[in-house]
């Protein structure tokens, strides 16, 4: 789902906000492009799979991210692949049509896959690849570890936010989860820098309003 940029960077400031019961003050970068402009950038983009082997699946994931954002969700999308073919594509559904805060796109895709494989006790999850337009959050990474989907690639991660920094969300998982996921590939997609920036801009269009909706439920 991506990491949140917060105006309350320090632990002391965050503690003061939460102890006072006041709504946290969140500050997000203003996106440079609208969904329409970003959708056109994707139309105009020509995948270069020789240099960037994950370009095509990354484009699909970001397209789905725009679809998620347009209906009021955090703008994150993704797809599942097997044998080099996309077998499913989906959007985050954590906010719309109603609040189901567990339904990040990774959850939606893995729910669908597990339902299809419900009668198969040994479905060779290593043969499946999950793509998402943003780095999976710790909740989704835990699910990926239990699901055992073989490879997970994300188009963009925010390495500049105070919450993330140099550490990936995988780095921050407890050792038990890392043990479960020790055979899995979880890393940034090999796609072009242009696609990574488009994915970032798509996410920025949605994250402020979505987080405000979450906070207004307190």
Task: Please give a handful of descriptors for the protein shown.
218 residues, 5-stranded mixed beta sheet, alpha/beta
Structural features, described:
40% of the residues lie in helices and 14% in strands. Mean pLDDT is 89; it is low at 1-17. It is α/β, with parallel strands linked by helices and 218 residues long. Strands 2-1-3-4-5 form a five-stranded mixed beta sheet. The protein is built from seven helices and five strands; from the N terminus they run αααββαβαβαβα. The chain has helices at 11-20, 35-44, 55-70, 105-116, 138-147, 175-180, 193-215, and strands spanning 77-82, 85-91, 128-134, 151-156, 185-188. The two termini are 20 Å apart. The protein is globular.
Question: In short, what is this structure?
Answer:
40% of the residues lie in helices and 14% in strands. With 218 residues, the protein is of the alpha/beta class.
Which percent bin holds the helix content? 25-40%
Strand order of the largest sheet: 2-1-3-4-5
Decide which structural class fits the backbone: alpha/beta
User: Nearest-angstrom radius of gyration?
Assistant: 17 Å
Distance between the termini: 20 Å
Order of helices and strands: HHHEEHEHEHEH
Mean pLDDT figure:
89
| Tally of helical runs | 7
| Cα shape | globular
Uncertain regions: pLDDT < 50 for 5+ in a row?
1-17
Strand content range: 5-15%
Number of strands: 5
**What profile does the largest beta sheet have?**
5 strands, mixed
Write the layout of secondary structure elements.
Blueprint (H helix, E strand, L loop, with lengths): L10 H10 L14 H10 L10 H16 L6 E6 L2 E7 L13 H12 L11 E7 L3 H10 L3 E6 L18 H6 L4 E4 L4 H23 L3
Parallel strand pairs: 3-4, 4-5
Antiparallel strand pairs: 1-2, 1-3
Helix pairs in contact: 2-3, 2-7, 3-7, 4-5
